[in-house]
Amino acid sequence: MIWMYMMKFPFRRLVASLFLVTGIQAQAATLEEIYNLAVGNDPQLGAAQAVFLSQNEVVAQNRALLLPNVALRGQSSDNRRMLIASTPVPTERFNDHGWQAVLNQPIFRLDSWYRFKQAKNQQAEAVANFSIEQQSLIVRVAENYFAILEAEADLDASNAERNAVQRQLEQVQQRFDVGLVAITDVLESQAAYDSSTVNVINAEGSQATSFEPLFRLTGENFREVNGLAEDFPVKNPDPQNEEAWVETALKNNYSLTAARESLRSAEKGLKLAKSGFYPTVDAQVTYNHNVTGSVSFLGGKLDQRTMALNVNVPLYQGGGVKSQVKAAGYNLEAAQKSLDLTQRRVAESTRNLYIAINTDVARVRARLRGIESSQSALDATQTGYEVGTRNIVDVLDAQRNLYASQLLYASARYQYVLDTLRLKQAVGTLNPQDLYDLNQFIDSSVIVSRTTPTTR
After folding, report:
1. Structural domain containing residue 186
2. Which residue of 28, 263, 379, 417 has the smallest Cβ count within 10 Å?
3. What is the pTM of this model?
């Protein structure tokens, strides 16, 4: 099971990442380091692990119902006996004490047997649910990490646009001063600069707050992370077969595994309810040792051993068992419907993600070409403005389009990364190695520092 692998694999990497913490983030954090810290510090995963460990005990608890149980009891009493018929009345004081050992062994208990079988399905369901949480952590770490990079891309684009507009404003002001352009060009440039300044302020706030989820995941405050390398490969899913991905998902998806085990548990629950109509048989061995201080024709000490076979045949229980059988049947029907719904959702999600990744690949390539086209358009518009065939609004729009294209290109790359991880999650194959492989394309030379929003 993946949960066992995930608990052991990152240990050395986790130790290495601790140096990052003790060094107060002396260098920018990578995706791998943040994930390794999250494995040991994420409260959501920690709570899920505690729930799993608790549910994992259900098999041992129900196995105990099939095994012998031994009890030892003891008692001691002080007694006073008075004989009313005698004169004078004699009084007898004495002590009784003793102990009893009882051994019970279930012989025929269908209810305990089905509880034990049901517990195994509940344990398997718990494993699947914990695996879901562990895969979810991988995706959550990636989502939060790339949200920072996207916020940084937005900030870079906003700063670049503002700087370009500022230069444009200075040039227009100079041309206005010598009478080459009208005042409207200056006003348009000033309005564009003010608008771009607002965009920078908003982008700074978003970039600063984008670091906050890392504290929730790891318990540590990060000031810097590394960016994604430009040579990160963007390629179509392999195999290029939608139904092959869906088939794999229907076999390996952990939500489906949990739903199947829930259905099997409900089937055992129905058998458990029906077992209320059947008799139970228990073997019992009892050993008694009693000592009395009273005068008895049996003597002061008595040892007794009893072996018994106890049979209980339910005849009428007020209709309770019949009602429990009906309720268990409804639970079984609900579990079957839930499984059907989960299968359809998994198939739908897998198809959507497969299509989304192919779309992402095409979008990334198109966005890259869009940057080139926007740059060419800006150059041509700038030239046209200088010769008088275009106005300042055209130049400002062309600049805005260029920086928007750069932001859309970065967003398309990050969306591709996340959709790829989500597809692997849908088919049940996502594991920490996928994140470690992705970390190879985290560029240590690209540092994203948390901004301090300024008040202007």
Report:
1. 2-41+109-278+327-449
2. 379
3. 0.88
Q: What was the pLDDT predicted at 22?
A: 47
Distance CA 338, CA 251 (A): 16
Whichever domain contains 251, its CATH number is 1.20.1600.10
CA 115 → CA 124, 331, 357, distances in Å?
A: 14, 16, 45
- CA dihedral of residues 251, 257, 263, 266 (deg, nearest 10): 150
Spatial separation of the C-alpha atoms in residues 108 and 101, rounded to whole Å:
22
Cα–Cα distance for residue pair 140/48, rounded to 1 Å: 15
| pLDDT 10s digits, 272-300 | 999 999 999 999 999 999 888 776 655 57
* Mean pLDDT computed over 38-44: 96
Question: What does the pLDDT read at residue 320?
Answer: 94
From the list 188, 354, 327, the residue with the least C-alpha distance to 266 is 327
The answer to the question of residue 100 being in a domain is: no
- Paired with 265 in beta bridges are none
Q: In total, how many domains does the chain have?
A: 1
Q: Where are the beta strands (DSSP E) in 90-183?
A: 91-108
Radius of gyration (C-alpha) of the chain in whole angstroms: 37
For residues 177 and 257, the model is more confident at 257
Distance of alpha carbon 329 from alpha carbon 311, whole angstroms: 28
Q: Residue 310: name the closest of 278, 280, 276 by CA.
A: 280
